[in-house]
Amino acid sequence: MLHNPYTLSFSKRQERAFREKYFADSLWQVRVAFLLVALLYAAFGFLDTIIVPEYRKEFHFIRFAVVIPALMGVILLSYFSFFRKIWQLLLMFSFMVGGVGIIIMLALVPDNYAYYGGLMLVLFAGYFFIRLRFLMASIAGWSLLIIYNVAAIFFSDAPGELIINNNFFFIAANAIGMMAAYNIESFTRRDFYLNKKLDARQLEITETNKNLEQKVRERTSELQYAKERAEESDKLKSAFLANLSHEIRTPMNGIMGFAELLKNPQLPGEQQREYAGIIEKSGKRMLNIINDIVDISRIEAGVMDVSLEKSNINEQLEYVYGFFKPQADDKGLQLILTDKLSTGKAMVLTDSEKLYAILTNLVKNAIKYSSQGTIQFGCNENRSKLEFFVRDTGIGIPEDRQQAIFERFVQADIEDREARQGAGLGLAISKAYVEMLGGEIWVESKIGQGSTFYFTLPYHTGSV
Ligand code: ADP
Fold this sequence. Notes:
The structure is a single chain. The protein is of the alpha+beta class. The protein has three domains: 12-207, no CATH class; 233-301, Helix Hairpins; 309-458, Histidine kinase-like ATPase, C-terminal domain (Heat Shock Protein 90, 2-Layer Sandwich), CATH 3.30.565. The chain is 67% helix and 10% strand. A hairpin with a 3-residue loop joins strand 6 and strand 7 (450-458). Bound molecules: adenosine-5'-diphosphate (ADP).
């Protein structure tokens, strides 16, 4: 329910807000109404002189010394801040003062109808004009009726039927006044209630709009990001394709060219072996690229499985060392396996194929991107993790590319690709493997001084 049907009150908090608003809306009307009522009250003093000259003095005293000063007093008080607290009581009091003034006149001249009309006017002003709330107005209105009856019965010589007659009018005026005041106030309250609701809804809408705008902004920036990624990926793919065709064409040309030369039956045995060796090397190079492409496709399709088994980390490191030693020697690089796990701790539960692929990629790159110096690699136990490293004294990687090189098809320096070979897949595959095994991979590098690649793996020693 909106409000109490009898008192018209809202719930406590809302009632307070309503009264504040009602007061603010009423203040000027109260002042104007009181001024007008006071003027009318004074104007009717002219009638006193004409119709009841014998009581002129008394009636004028009531009007000019009591009622009008009381009304003006209320106007004056309305300029003080405490008026807000007591204004309804003051209004009720003024309503009664105005009414009692007329009732006294009525008691003195009961046979003069002009004063009955006067009381009716006071009732109307009290109920409709001075912004007195329904409940207070009703109390004052009915009290005036009682006071009238007391005055008429005990303090005047009005005949019985006149009193009954007047009661009919006054009761009817009170009933009508009450009903009308009730309606006026309940509509005012409804207005207030609906406005409040409207404000709340408005706030909600503004809030929703704000959220919506925020969402749109977020979505737009997400889309922008996605678009940039797509464009970048597109560029990378084009670069990759160009690179790939080079990567495939070079060994392919080698294979075709030397196969052609091999056709010559007069070719000496030593040259035959040399050409066959070149064909084999070129074939391997192509196979490597194709394997990388197959691997990255399987990773991206989510069909690359992890198969855990116990394997000896030290043996794997030694195997990688043995595998790359000749290549390092060929390039005049020193390859050193510096750190191994202690013998009793070397058995680890991991996917050895993937670990091998990661180490191979990193050492291969270290050799590929270094022209002199030392390549060190190894593994340490670090806070219940295995931390592998591969350190070289090669060309280094610019800081702004150190993240990007782990993405597929990315090379730190696109210009350099022809000189070094590679499709930019090795690190992407390594990163995917490290993450599949539950570790992290990163690089520390200074351009011209060398790079150190690190990766961690969980140190599981449990059985399968
Ligand atoms: P690629 O087949 O081109 O070597 P990778 O994914 O293995 O592809 O490496 C990506 C890029 O990162 C390389 O092209 C190279 O620019 C850079 N890079 C990788 N390892 C090293 C290293 N040890 N020293 C310098 N640059 C490196």
